[in-house]
Amino acid sequence: MAPHHVLKCCQRSLAWIPVIFINLVVGWSYYAYVVELCIFTIPNNAEKISYLVVFHLFFIMFIWSYWKTICSRPASPSKEFCLAKVEKEQYEKEQPDAQQDILKKAAVGLPVYTRTGTGAVRYCDHCQVIKPDRSHHCSTCDMCVLKMDHHCPWVNNCVGFSNYKFFVLFLAYSMLYCVFIAATVLQYFIKFWTHCRRRSVGDCPQNQLPDTHAKFHVLFLFFVAAMFFISILSLFSYHLWLVGKNRTTIEAFRAPVFRNGPDKNGFSLGFSRNVLEVFGDQKKYWMFPIYTSHGDGHSFATRLLTLDPEQIAVGLQINGKSSEDGLASPKHVLGNNINHIEGHQDDVAQTVTVTMERES
Q: What are the residues whose beta carbons fall under 8 Å from the beta carbon of 290, sequence distance 6 or more?
């Protein structure tokens, strides 16, 4: 039997096959559209230039957002969520009930408000960290990922807090790329479909084109573009719905559990604020794969936040320290969750209630 690390290496290599496939398809589509269609097939120069300009605009944005999604390393919990050495040793020796007592004490002062289905503190035995809200362990990436949405084989990466905006833009620009190709190729697809066997355009009827090597590329280009557009459209529409509800794919299938029970809309702040959570406040950057999302991935504003009195005191007293990655410290408990929603803060008591726009 091959060593474990050899199998891991093989798995990681094979995981790049979908990415290679997508890049081969995109590379062929570029050649087919630019060379076979625009250069060899379209006779009108004005039409040719206008097609090439718009095509390259969509192509650049598509490739940019796609590789940003691939190359953005998934964000993982900071060291504040790790157990201290003494706590870790004690945790490994105790029974499950006693382990939960250790985790509850360690979680005091951390912005952790979600629980397991049984009400226990969420802890990853593999990574040995208390899981921040909305984070999950990815077995493929072998790490806990902040605000994990899903692991996407087409980008060979986890889609989560660090690259979710890039992923949504990748879907948007890939859909526009496909629909533009399909729309502009359609008239030549019809002409090639009603092909004639003559070799020169001048000898062909007005509604037909010659049966040259470009015919194969144009015909398949339309089919491939239309097929990918239909498949991407449904996925893009679904993720737009998730953005509007401020949910991840995991939360859409399994509602997050808070201290007062499961709430599928627990992180929803109203449509406009939900969009800002992903795309940020500066609208001029929304269409570019540049990181502008709100927060640090460790704490999230909620519609109803129920705190223990001890946690409120700790949250008000702790002066947060900057983490190594430059993000705000997760120990700004009240600051991150309440002050983030301007103009919607009630007096801090045993229960902190934030009134947001009504959810449908």
A: none
Instruction: State the amino acid at position 218 in one-letter form.
Output: V
Of residues 246, 237, 278, the one with CA closest to residue 264: 246
Q: What is the pLDDT of residues 51-88, one digit of tens each?
A: 999 999 999 999 999 999 999 999 999 999 999 889 99
Longest CA span, the chain: 87
- The first and second tokens of residue 285, run together, are 């950057």
Cβ atoms 34, 28 nearer than 8 A:
no
Where does the pLDDT of residue 246 fall: very low under 50, low under 70, confident under 90, or very high at 90 and above?
very high
* Residue 44, CB-side half-sphere exposure with 13 Å CA sphere: 5
CA–CA distance, 136 with 352 (Å, rounded to integer): 26
Percent of the chain surpassing pLDDT 90:
62
152 is catalytic: yes
* Residue of 38, 124, 152, 204 with catalytic role: 152
Which residues of the chain form beta strands (DSSP E)? Answer: 114-115, 123-124, 129-130, 136-138, 143-145, 150-152, 157-159, 257-258, 261-262, 304-306, 351-353
Q: Are 322 and 328 in contact (CB under 8 A)?
A: yes
Query: Any idea what DSSP says for residue 326?
Result: S
Query: How far apart are the C-alpha atoms of 189 and 182, rounded to whole Å?
Result: 9
Is this structure's pTM higher than 0.70?
yes
SS (H, E, C) 197-215: CCCCHHHCCCCCCECCCHH
What mean pLDDT do residues 169-180 have?
98
Distance CA(64)–CA(287), nearest Å, equals 11
Going by DSSP bridges, is the β-strand pair 114-115/123-124 parallel, antiparallel, or unpaired? unpaired
Closest residue by Cα to residue 138 from 161, 119, 106, 115: 161
Burial label for 224, CB within 10 Å (0-12, 13-18, 19+), is middle
DSSP 145-193: ETT--EEETTTTEEESTTTHHHHHHHHHHHHHHHHHHHHHHHHHHHHHH
